[in-house]
Amino acid sequence: MEVEKMDENDWKYHGEGNKSIVVSHAQHSQVLRFLKHNVEDHKHRCQTSEQAQQHIQNIVDFGKHVMRPLLGENYVHHGEAVKLPLDFVRLLSLKVEPERPESRTDKVMDTLSGWAMCLPNLTQLPDHLSEHRPPLCIEIKPKCGFLPWSRHVTKDVKLKACRFCMHQHLKISSGKWKRRSQYCPLDLFSGSKQRMFLAIKHLLEEAQNNLKIFKNGELIFGCKDDVDQKQDLNELAQHLWPYFSPTVPLIQGRPHRKAVLHNLTQVVTMALLSSGEPGDTTEHRRFHPPKSRDHCRTNMLLQDCCHKANRGLPKDCVLSKILQVQLLDDLDIEGIYPLYKRVERYLAEYPEERSRLQLDGPYNESFLERVRRCPSDDDGSIEYAVGKIHQYRVAMAAKDCSIMITLAPYEGDDILWPTLEIQPSKPRFRGAVSILDLDPKPYESIPHQYKLDLQIVSNYLRSVQSNVELASPNLCLNSEDCTLLFHSA
């Protein structure tokens, strides 16, 4: 990247989250990610350029030295920190401001430090892999894929209803969303194609911020932060039909919506279950999480119909990799919070120890060793407390990550790339699977997480006290599949 030749007109708004805003290059497969600040903080320049640089570098180092070794080199792209001309950053901020959702404008892009992250645009594939039609990219934020089993859990409902499903009730009551999503992460992480189809179906019905679909890098489906907006599945089917046209007929000039979405669901499911490696034998090597319930009580019909459908995940697939890191949280926040207080008491007496304990980084090989070698039994030491807190923070990053599945139709016959061929008559795709949004969770956020957990549980118990919730999934799903060829992104 030639920073001295940066032109704001070469970049466009791509999207944003709570803490950062992303712009993409119009010609090259690159994105820049800038930090965001509250308007008042930005006005008074509460963060120096050096602090912004360290913040960005911490994110890069955490991805490179911690999450990449844990999740796999093929899945994680850590990017690099870059210093950009301030004039370019200011003009870019002015250019993208009109495109930002109104609900996000309580924060502004950092235009004072000049620091950003440069990353590959994972909604795109290299030019030689996108031959005839523009690539599709499906972004899924899967959330936590297991129920806690820790002895520290004090509310029995947490052992039966998953965090995501309980949190839905709080988000509805607070006005965050108008409609409750029926999606349950336990279905997606089950390894059962039937349950995974159901999870993706529910994401399509109510995407919220857990599903986005891009076509040639442009968002065509997914939440734009409008709580009243209902996604148009007919319009999505129109966008997707050219990718599945050999197998999807037109009815009165329009593609059959259910058939198009069924094809999409098959492709996404296969991508999530594939290791993307040559000679894939994952069907015989499956990862089974600890013995906790494999279904959520908020979906009682699913419990009756599919309780035997949890097959476990192929050991090297992207969902298995994510779940294994999530499971580092084996104490639950109720077990972590007392350890946090133990560390706080220690720091009050020995404040100089904060740096040695790496509570604020650096995120290097030493930090990863603390995560990997934490004792399993509490000996009352500060080392145990810090090790479990580090494990919890890493697990929380995995619970909040996004999966990017990037696909392009493929009609060639070369076999240089790993293939997963289930039904040759179906469309074939080249694809790459990646994981992003792997920022380190601040040590200081633990009290907030503890209070939020209490709030989620109490709100859920109040909201279901007078209502028995019954889900009614359509379990009559076919098992036809498409063909995928996977590449390193």
From TrEMBL:
Subcellular location(s): the record lists: Cytoplasm; Nucleus
Its GO CC terms are: cytoplasm; nucleus
Q: What is its EC number?
A: 2.7.1.158
As recorded in UniProt, coiled-coil segments are: none
Q: Which domain of life is it from?
A: Eukaryota
- List the keywords (alphabetical): ATP-binding, Cytoplasm, Kinase, Nucleotide-binding, Nucleus, Transferase
What Pfam families does the record tag this protein with?
Ins_P5_2-kin (PF06090)
The UniProt catalytic activity note for this protein reads: 1D-myo-inositol 1,3,4,5,6-pentakisphosphate + ATP = 1D-myo-inositol hexakisphosphate + ADP + H(+)
InterPro entries recorded: Ins_P5_2-kin, IP5_2-K_N_lobe
Which GO BP terms sit in this record?
Answer: inositol phosphate biosynthetic process
- Its top-level enzyme class, in one word, is transferase
Q: Which GO-annotated molecular functions does the record name?
A: ATP binding; inositol-1,3,4,5,6-pentakisphosphate 2-kinase activity
Role, per record: Phosphorylates Ins(1,3,4,5,6)P5 at position 2 to form Ins(1,2,3,4,5,6)P6 (InsP6 or phytate).
Question: What's written under domain?
Answer: The EXKPK motif is conserved in inositol-pentakisphosphate 2-kinases of both family 1 and 2.
What family, per the record? Belongs to the IPK1 type 2 family.
Specify the protein name: Inositol-pentakisphosphate 2-kinase
Source organism per entry reads: Scleropages formosus (Asian bonytongue)
Upper classification of the source organism reads: Eukaryota, Metazoa, Chordata, Craniata, Vertebrata
